[in-house]
Amino acid sequence: MPDWHNVPMRKTLIKNISLPEADEWFASAGEKPYRGRQLFNWMYERNTASFHDMTNFSKELRQRLDDEFLLTPLVLEERIISKVDGSEKYLFRTMDECYIESVLIKSNTGGDNERLTLCVSSQIGCRMGCAFCSTARMGFVRNLETAEILEQLAQVRRITGLKNNNIVFMGMGEPLLNYDNVIKAADIMNYSFGFHISVRKITISTCGIGKGIERFIDEGRQYNLAISLNDTEPEKRRVNMPVEKKYPFADIAAMLERKMPSSRNRLTVEYVMRRDNISRDDAARLKKLFRRSRIKLNLIPLNSNGNGESPNTDEIESFLNELAIMNVPVSVRASAGSDICGACGQLAGKRSEAVII
Ligand code: SAH
Questions:
Q1: Short-list 279, 328, 327, 275, CA closest to 301
Q2: Residues 105, 167: contact at Cβ < 8 Å?
């Protein structure tokens, strides 16, 4: 684990290991093969916070696990609940004293149905440099370990008693630049001996890392994929999203056109609405993109953080009208938790003033 210098006693993060690796460890410890599965049951299904609570292991075995492994690699520093929409922002401290954030988003899907979505971080900071995003301003520190990604879900579930929720990799960082750890975490979230969340409820969002998207499709990954477009003109996109220079969106669209028909992925294109990217011409250019019906367009009003102007409701309304006239299917995501700086583009790994845990 190259990035993991400061862990006390250099323990291995146990949530980094797969079930076969766990089986191997138990075999080398002279234990029965089913112990690996029991361990996964404790760690994920029962979401246990201490090796000492794993009561079907002998005392010696529990001690040995505790000596060798670290079960909870994040410390919860803050939990803030939005007064506006009940969303919750969690600030975690890593073992090397960095901060990451996760946001639990509550959205009503009609009637009594409330959909809960946990937005998890995949990196500490981000190196993509998108002009409108706060995470970009903190720069890049390092990739998160698989265990640190899983731990965000484990702790939020433990605190809230949550059992069933969607997952979006839309927190801090660019998931496809931490491909291996992100996919391993998603697999354990999905795994029946893990958190057992359906592939359809897990979404990985990328600013458009062409190489990662291609690998994701070629490997037959079934998770939902979201790509952040945010501008319809390449020249403008290059300024707002420097990733356009290395991976032009047009190339990604062509690659998807070639490969998506044979894959089962569902694709969402995200579009953060600013005052200057929602003209009639923008709508017309989006229409061209949406000839393929399996793509869904998800519009997000810009949460202004000093860079870019948010459109007002009339401007959004008229953009939606243009798109409706052109028959482009859209959904609008009201960004949750803006009063707690938990909304899209506002995660900066900072402590707030009011601490409510
Ligand atoms: N790096 C990934 C995931 C993190 S960003 C990606 O780019 O997709 C998650 C979403 O928040 C992206 O769609 C991004 O375009 C959007 N976003 C970033 N800053 C925003 C802001 N200030 N207001 C609204 N959405 C924003």
A1: 275
A2: no
Distance CA 178, CA 128 (A): 13
Q: Which amino acid is at 309?
A: E
- This prediction's pTM: 0.93
What pLDDT, in 10s, does the model give residues 306-326?
778 999 999 999 999 999 998
Ligand 1 binding pocket mutation candidate from 143, 344, 346, 347 (most atoms within 8 A of CB) = 344
Looking up tokens 């006390």 gives 8
Q: Report the relative pairing of strands 267-273 and 123-125 from DSSP bridges.
A: unpaired
Q: Which tokens go with 75?
A: 């410390």
Q: Give SS3 for 167.
A: strand
Residue 172 CA to ligand 1 centre (angstroms): 9
The question of whether 101 is a catalytic residue gets the answer yes
63 pLDDT more than 50:
yes
Q: Name which of 204, 212, 115 is nearest 166 in CA terms.
A: 115
Give CA–CA dist 302/307, Å, rounded: 10
Q: How far is CA 118 from CA 24, 43, 64, 347, in A?
A: 32, 19, 33, 14
Residue 284, SS3?
helix
Q: Quote the CA–CA distance of 59 and 53 in Å, as a whole number.
A: 10
Sign of the dihedral defined by the CA atoms of residues 234, 238, 244, 246, in that order: positive
